[in-house]
TrEMBL record:
It holds the Pfam family EAL. The lineage of its organism: Bacteria, Pseudomonadati, Pseudomonadota, Betaproteobacteria, Burkholderiales. The keyword Transferase does not apply. The modification 4-aspartylphosphate is found at residue 80. This is Diguanylate cyclase (GGDEF)-like protein. Residues 31-145 form the Response regulatory domain.
């Protein structure tokens, strides 16, 4: 008890050795100080109180009493007023100054009233006149200690209440939510500190004000309705989203989820047994407002991303289908036309592969902006993915309106795009399906516009065409071709052809380029250009390339049996196959399995492979070089050439593209591109091969310029394995006869 009392009074007392401070439990000893200058009375007091659970300390004068009071706390002091050195009143003054907080029973033989008044003024609990009876003293002691216990208990309860209130205040003010109460007229009667942190309004600015001062104007009607409904139904608890004004945000508002509960003051629910009781009660509203602004924004962003293309911000397929469905309903109701356009960019893959995906993304964004500028507000432009776009042209009077929009698209794309410090030219192939002539459902119109777009691709690209039912037959044939290609490897329909490479100085075959053919059971022999694009689109390049490695190694092993001069075989490598991690291991294992020297293999790659993913290409080609396989750049000069690639990549051979060779029509003319490529190869010490040589004029010009190895129809067409073997045998026979 004394500890709690001391803490309440803010005392910091030093306990003497041997003294034990009293805890709050009843079993703890009570510290009692006995002060009297008469030894007989002091001894009598000790005998009287001994054995009652008290810890007794005696003082024979005022000086000793003060020393004891300095050293430790006491619960009770039995004090004689008349002491030889220091009077009882002075000792009590000392106790009050030191705020000891202990109870005092004053004993005195004085008969005057002044002594009594002086003691009581100084806070004495009781005053006993000497001589007093034993029972009188014991009763006074018991009452004094009981009063002290009650006082200590009251202090403990008060401290608990104060602590509870502090905790409550802390929890309420530290809540992440705004907590508030409104009276029956909607005025704020309480609001926690969170309102100031989130909204910027102080308590003084809010308390006593109507809730409408904080609610956003657009949500006021809903707020009035909800709060009125709460007042009308006393048991109602409601949740509502309301925007509140804020001084912290740019748009001056934040969104909160409000949980509202009715409260009553001055009357408990148990006592409100009648309607009259409830009407007399003072009703208010308790509200908890949670800030959900960021969650709302996240939900809006997720919802937006679910229906829009993130790169171009255009509607995606899901939103496009929804809008097309609505446009169809309106067209049916108004008996009007609408058109669906399927637009695919031409040459986009080249740009994406050579300049990188970042530049490709920027190109798609610029294309989107140009296409949108050609449309009306009622039209919808959507990106399906990649370089494919869909367009809904609503409320058309004639199909010629769709043709005009398509021509605007083509014209808008005609101007070059500035990308990566260079100008890029692209075009588009557009297919158009018109409701109700080309379909009456969402799926039909999209599918038929897609079919028309592919028809435009086959007709040369960079234009538009309307759907026609006959196009479905061609589309069906294309699908059948794709299906047959899946079976071609399993059924042994693929075959390797080889175009010889000739040294024009010795007229010997020094190498060959491997070319794939498809012996289609119905359409006959198909060149690589007729089916490999389908293979790339359908993920078949990997198994086809694996088959090719086995086939060329098998054939090359047969070539080596014909003569001692082992010629080099070059093979074209798909970018998809180079990017695959196990390409190198597959090639290495095939060479070991067929006992082929790596120096007999030359891998042809295009500039696009090197530019698209340089680091991966360097790693793969370096591994080939370490194995002993050489690398050639095919179609050099036709892509986005950069001389730095010839330094960075392990290149051994440059091949002059057929497009440059075909321009040579006069031996005496000047063809700077060809001469530049030959000069580059000489300067870098690289091998040089000219492709597509068909005339003696071309041969003579290239030979005079310094190119000695050529391939083309002037020498040999691509030959099957048995014909190429025969060519090698004949060449070896001629060499043997000459010796």
């Amino acid at each position: 008890m004394s500890n709690l009392s001391d803490a309440a009074n803010g005392l910091e007392l030093n306990f003497p050795v041997g003294y034990t401070s009293l805890p709050d439990s009843v079993e703890s000893p009570v510290l009692v100080l006995l002060v009297d200058d008469e030894p007989r009375i002091l001894s009598s007091l000790n005998e009287l109180l001994k054995g009652r659970g008290y810890l007794l300390t005696s003082a024979a004068n005022g000086g000793d009493a003060i020393q004891h009071l300095r050293r430790g706390p006491f619960d009770l002091v039995i004090l004689d007023l008349h002491l030889p050195d220091i009077g009882g009143h002075e000792i009590m003054d000392f106790m009050n100054q030191q705020k000891t907080g202990c109870n005092v029973i004053v004993t005195s033989g004085a008969r005057g009233i002044d002594a009594v008044i002086g003691a009581l003024k100084r806070g004495a609990y009781d005053y006993l006149r000497k001589p007093y009876s034993r029972e009188e003293l014991l009763k006074a002691v018991d009452n004094a200690l009981q009063q002290r216990r009650l006082k200590a208990e009251n202090q403990r309860i008060a401290l608990r209440l104060e602590r509870s209130e502090r905790i409550y205040r802390y929890l309420v003010d530290s809540s992440p939510d705004i907590i508030y109460t409104l009276d029956h007229e909607g005025r704020f009667t309480f609001v926690n500190d969170r309102a100031h942190q989130l909204l910027g309004f102080s308590r003084d600015e809010i308390l006593g004000k109507h809730f409408s001062v904080l609610v956003h104007e657009d949500d006021l009607d809903r707020a009035h309705y909800v709060f009125k409904e709460c007042r009308d139904d006393h048991r109602l608890s409601r949740n509502v989203e309301l925007r509140l004004k804020s001084r912290h945000t740019a748009n001056d508002q934040r969104t909160f989820s409000h949980e509202l509960t009715n409260i009553t003051f001055g009357s408990t629910e148990d006592l409100q047994n009648s309607e009259l009781d409830r009407q007399k009660a003072f009703w208010g509203t308790y509200g908890v407002a949670r800030d959900i602004t960021e969650r709302k924004r996240a939900d809006e962003l997720i919802n937006y991303q679910a229906f829009h293309d993130i790169l171009t911000q255009l509607p995606n397929r899901a939103l496009f289908r929804d809008r097309l469905g609505l446009a169809l309903l309106q067209a049916k109701r108004n008996e009007s036309n609408l058109a669906v356009m399927f637009l695919d960019l031409d040459r986009f893959k080249i740009v994406n592969d050579t300049l990188g995906h970042g530049v490709g993304d920027e190109l798609l964004q610029q294309v989107s902006s140009r296409l949108k500028a050609c449309l009306r507000r009622c039209d919808t432009l959507s990106r399906l993915g990649g370089d494919e776009f869909l367009v809904v042209l609503a409320d058309l009077t004639d199909r010629r309106d769709a043709a005009l929009i398509a021509e605007k698209f083509i014209e808008s794309l005609r101007q070059p795009f500035a990308l990566a410090d260079q100008l890029v030219h692209i075009s588009a192939s557009i297919g158009i399906a018109v409701y109700p002539f080309d379909g009456s459902t969402v799926d039909e119109l999209i599918r038929h516009s897609d079919v028309a777009m592919y028809q435009m691709k086959t007709q040369g690209k960079n234009g538009h065409v309307f759907f026609d039912a006959s196009m479905l037959d061609a589309a069906t044939q294309r699908i059948a071709l794709e299906h047959s290609l899946h079976l071609a490897v399993e059924q042994g329909e693929l075959e390797m052809y080889y175009q010889p490479q000739v040294d024009v100085m010795t007229h010997k075959v020094v190498g060959a380029e491997a070319l794939m053919r498809w012996n289609h059971p119905e359409r006959g022999f198909l060149s690589a250009g007729e089916f490999l694009p389908f293979a790339e689109e359908n993920g078949l390049m990997i198994p086809i390339s694996d088959w090719m490695l086995e086939a060329i190694c098998h054939d090359l092993k047969e070539w080596n049996k014909v003569g001692d001069n082992k010629i080099c075989l070059s093979l074209n490598l798909s970018p998809q196959y180079l990017d695959r991690g196990d390409f190198f291991d597959n090639l290495k294992n095939a060479l070991i399995r067929h006992d082929i020297e790596p120096k007999q293999i030359e891998v042809e790659v295009t500039e696009n492979i090197c530019i698209r993913n340089p680091q991966v290409a360097i790693e793969q080609l370096d591994k080939l070089g370490q194995l002993g396989v050489s690398v050639a750049i095919d179609d050099f000069g036709t892509g986005y050439s950069s001389l730095s690639y010839l330094h960075r990549f392990p290149i051994h051979t440059i091949k002059i593209d057929r497009a440059f060779v075909m321009e040579i029509q006069d031996v005496g003319a000047h063809f700077p591109v060809v001469l530049a490529i030959i000069s580059i190869a000489r300067g870098l010490g690289l091998n040089l091969i000219a492709e597509g040589v068909e005339t003696r004029i071309q041969e003579r010009y290239l030979k005079n310029a310094g190119c000695d190895v050529m391939q083309g129809f002037l020498y040999h067409k691509p030959l099957p394995q048995h014909a190429f073997m025969e060519l090698l045998r004949n060449q070896n026979s001629l060499v043997a006869e000459m010796h």
